[in-house]
Amino acid sequence: MNVLVINGPNLNLLGTREKDHYGNTKLSDIEENLRAIAEKNALNISFFQSNAEHEIVDKIQSALNDIDGIIINPGAFTHTSVSIRDALLAVGIPFYEVHLSNIFSREEFRHHSFFSDIASGVICGMGPLGYQYALENIINKEK
Ligand code: DQA
């Protein structure tokens, strides 16, 4: 089983960015934790972060034949990107939407997601653990 973890814009700044919302954990720490869980469960995991919408679209398109599950935090593209939504629909790979912060307790423009209605699951407001919960869910479904 191959899992791809995608992080959108500004998530490369985790650990330094708006700590009140996103905490102290770096993206590399999150990835390390997921890699350890994947290894324990004999699962292949790969990571991709980009600040560019088209690069995320390209990555999703290229996942078509070898990725079985996607965990994605689209960052601000959550609230804007029809093209990333369409890419996920086009490849038809089951995906989990993760947000570190609770987007529903924040500004109104963050309350709408272009992904939630087509996601296998949505986790928000649980900080870095959200990624872990999504991965554990994929693993449990496989068993
Ligand atoms: C976020 C929430 C988004 O609204 C925001 O634009 C982000 C991060 C989160 O993880 O809480 O960049 O997706």
TrEMBL record:
Keyword ATP-binding: no
Matches recorded under HAMAP family: AroQ
Swiss-Prot/TrEMBL site (Transition state stabilizer) positions: R17
The entry's keywords: Amino-acid biosynthesis, Aromatic amino acid biosynthesis, Lyase
Kinase keyword on record: no
EC number: 4.2.1.10
Native organism taxonomy: Bacteria, Pseudomonadati, Pseudomonadota, Gammaproteobacteria, SAR86 cluster
Family as reported in the entry's similarity comment: Belongs to the type-II 3-dehydroquinase family.
Catalytic activity: 3-dehydroquinate = 3-dehydroshikimate + H2O
UniProt name for this protein: 3-dehydroquinate dehydratase
List of catalytic residues: Y22 (proton acceptor), H99 (proton donor)
Cleavable signal peptide: none
Function of the molecule: Catalyzes a trans-dehydration via an enolate intermediate.
Coiled-coil positions: none
Gene (UniProt): aroQ
